Each structure stands twice: as structure tokens, then as C-alpha cells.
Amino acid sequence: MFRQKKEEPGCRPDTPINCKPMYLYCPVWLKTNLHNMVNKVILIGNLGRDPEVRYLEGNVAVAKFSVATNESYKDKKGDWQTATEWHDVVAWRTLAERAEKQLKKGSQVFVEGKLTHRKYQDKDGIERYVTEVVANSFRVLDRRDSRPGGHDEEPPADDTMGDTSSSMTTSGEQHADDDLPF
User: Fold this and answer.
1) Highest-pLDDT range among 43-47, 146-150, 166-170
2) CA-CA distance, 5 to 28, in Å (whole number)?
3) Most Cβ neighbours (<10 Å): which of 11, 94, 153, 173?
4) What is the arithmetic mean of pLDDT over 30-56?
5) What is the spatial distance between Cα 103 and Cα 148, in angstroms, rounded to a whole number?
6) CA 32, CA 51: separation in Å to the nearest integer?
7) What pLDDT, on the 0 to 100 scale, is given for residue 60?
8) Torsion over CA of 168, 169, 171 and 177, rounded to 10 degrees?
9) pLDDT recorded at residue 137
10) Is the Cβ–Cβ distance between 68 and 46 less than 8 Å?
11) Distance of CA 5 to CAs 2, 11, 16, Å?
């Protein structure tokens, strides 16, 4: 994080790193760092379909999938409405291979990347425009036991304290507290 060596008028060099950005306090920083721009997208949503993975020349993997985000608001009548936005996401190379293994339709996912725009000609010669998020990273947010397939690639950790939320009967049946919201 940028820190001023000497205090300039309007600067606050004592501001903690995780506080408000330095440019809000320091006109000197703003003048010297105005050329730094940011193109960053963070999505938390649900996958609309399984990733579609293709391999290009040189065995380069590219995965495409869609993420739905929801926003709730009250309309003029005071009723709650939900607006869903769909985002096309592209992942490359090892991230694409990870997406193929870990992401499934309906999974909740955190995606971080950048917004890109491109145009191409379709098979009829018509120019098409596409806006996509090129992923830098992602993380599956589903609980392991609720993911498709019922488990993650990592084995569950040994629980030395025991599990009090469910118990095994002598016949081997497992009784869970189904009325819990989590």
C-alpha cells in the first residue's frame, strides 16, 4: 500500500491498510496514480449449466459457463421482486480444467475476474457482440455434503469430538435433525 514519506496537505499516512482507499485522503496520490485503472468483477451466484470445456490448439483448455445473480427489491406496491442477471464466464487453462471437475449446474460459486467485450461474425456473416467475465479464480461455496455427488475431492476431516447433530442407531440407520435450517 502506498504510504507518504512526508505529510502532504490533505493526506493521511496513518490510515490503516484495510481502511478506505488512499486516494480518498491524498490528492498527491491521486495525481501520481491516476493512470492506474481497475477492471475487476466479483460474482457470487449459481451456475446455470455445467461448464462446457473445449481444447484449442496446443491442448489449451477453455471453459464456458453461466452464473445467475439475484437482486431483491420492493416495487411501488411494496411487494418483493427478484431480478435475475445472467453472466457468461470464461476460464482458461488449468482454471478451466478445475471448473470441469468442480463446478456443476446449481452450485453456488464465487468468481473473480475481469469484464471483456469482443465481437465476431457468426456463420451467416452477421457481426455479434459478446460481454464476458474472464475468470482469474473461483471458489465453490456449497457445503460439501450438499454438492452434486455428495462429497468433495478432499476426504472429511476426522472428528475427535464426535457428531452431536446426528446419531447412528444399532441397525446402522442415521437420524438427522431435519428441521434445522442449515
Assistant:
1) 43-47
2) 12
3) 11
4) 87
5) 9
6) 42
7) 95
8) -70
9) 96
10) yes
11) 10, 11, 15
Write down the pLDDT at residue 67: 97
Cα separation of 150 and 153, whole Å?
10
Say how far apart CA 93 and CA 128 lie, in whole Å: 25
How far from each other are the two terminal CA atoms of the chain, in whole angstroms? 39
DSSP assignment letter at 157: P
E strands of the chain, at which residues? 41-47, 52-56, 60-74, 80-92, 108-121, 127-140, 166-168, 174-176
pTM attached to this predicted model: 0.60
| pLDDT exceeds cutoff 60 at 173 | no
Going 12 to 17 to 21 to 27, the CA torsion angle's sign is positive
Determine the 3-state secondary structure of 28 from DSSP: helix
Rounded to whole angstroms, the Cα distance separating 161 from 182 reads 20
Half-sphere exposure of 135 (CA within 13 A, CB side): 28
Comparing 25-34, 42-51, 57-66, 110-119, which segment has the lowest mean pLDDT? 25-34
- Whole-number Å distance between alpha carbons of 68 and 107: 10
Judged against a pLDDT cut of 50, whether residue 58 lies above it is answered with: yes
Report H helices in 34-140.
93-102
Residue recorded with cell 472429511: 156
pLDDT band at 38 (very low <50, low <70, confident <90, very high): confident
